[in-house]
Amino acid sequence: MSGLSPNIPKASRVNPLILRTSVTVPANATVQAATAPLQNPFREGMFIDEVRISVPTANFSDIFLKLDLGRVPLTNGFISPMCFAKAINIDVLSSPNYIFTWRFPRPLFVPGNELLVPTFRNNPLNPPGATIESSITYVCRSYTGNKQPDVLNVPWCAAYQTPAKSDAIVFAYTEESTESDLTNPFNEPLHLQRFVSARPAYSIDSLAHFLTNVLVRMSDSQGRHVVATPTPIGNLCFLPEGGVWNVNAVMPPKSFFKSWWDINQTVAGQASKQFLGIVGHREVRIR
């Protein structure tokens, strides 16, 4: 836990708080979750330490999430929860869900009159898809003091996903991200924590495919190599349902990463797409 902002007096009282709301998202629909359950019931400011998204294991790759604090975005549009962090697979006999937990590097302060608003999109990998029951939980601390931080630590997640392929036959293909995908579009530097990669696992071949048959090379917006030669994604980010490469770097303002993909589909009859995300935070002065 990274504690309070240095601008918050230590004598201020901070109380643990859990806020949760559920949402029903039909196939090919976009739904804003009910925000009343996500409002601090004490109408005070609060620090959010982490966000947890629960998605059924049967169609976890179909759900996408957008998070906004007023006019301040936390995501680059709609992002798969797989790009936040590695999933926890809850016992499928009692609760067939994946839990994706985005632990913020520093607490996000939310004033008492503001809301962190989640919007969900159901984009089926295998049409026509199905209605998805999901939920989102904020792990918070309610803040009773009057002084607010001078600097807002804003988490950020941006991602690229390859176009979905419905692979009736075995074949190879290439893709590349754009400058607007893995991006820091802001005027502040982005403190980059990690790259996160994922591939929906639909067959026994998925792990081997992810580790050996998906090759990536990358560069930054200055043309400097990040991954110099085509490298199996499994060598960079481990585990298919949310592999992580911790980097602890800084992205300059208005910068981006480009990625080039060589994908060899080795099993017929499964749908396929790849994800790559960047996760970090930026400091925004509000006073």
Polypeptide structure, described:
- With 287 residues, this protein is mainly β.
- The chain contains 2 helices and 20 strands.
- It has 2 domains: 14-148, Sandwich (Jelly Rolls), CATH 2.60.120; 154-285, Jelly Rolls, CATH 2.60.120.
- A 5-stranded antiparallel β-sheet has the order 1-9-3-7-6, with no helix packed on it. Strands 12, 13, 15, 16 and 18 form a 5-stranded antiparallel β-sheet that branches. It has a 4-stranded antiparallel β-sheet with strand order 2-8-4-5, with no helix packed on it.
- Strand 15 (214-220) and strand 16 (225-232) form a beta hairpin.
Protein traits:
Jelly Rolls; mainly beta; 5-stranded antiparallel beta sheet; globular; 2 helices; 2 domains; 20 strands; single chain; 287 residues
Characterize the largest beta sheet: strand count, sense, and whether it forms a barrel.
Answer: 5 strands, antiparallel
Shape: globular
- Please report which band the strand proportion falls in: under 5%, 5-15%, 15-25%, 25-35%, 35-45% or over 45%: over 45%
- Count of the domains: 2
| Average of pLDDT | 85
Q: In whole angstroms, how far apart are the ends?
A: 25 Å
Given the structure, what is the number of helices?
2
- Any idea what the CATH architecture of the largest domain is? Sandwich
* Subunit arrangement of the protein: single chain
Class by SSE composition: mainly beta
Number of strands: 20
Order of helices and strands: EEEEEEEEEEEEEEHEEHEEEE
Low-confidence stretches: none
Strand order of the largest sheet: 1-9-3-7-6
Using only C-alpha atoms, the radius of gyration works out to 19 Å
Give the fraction of residues assigned to helices: under 10%
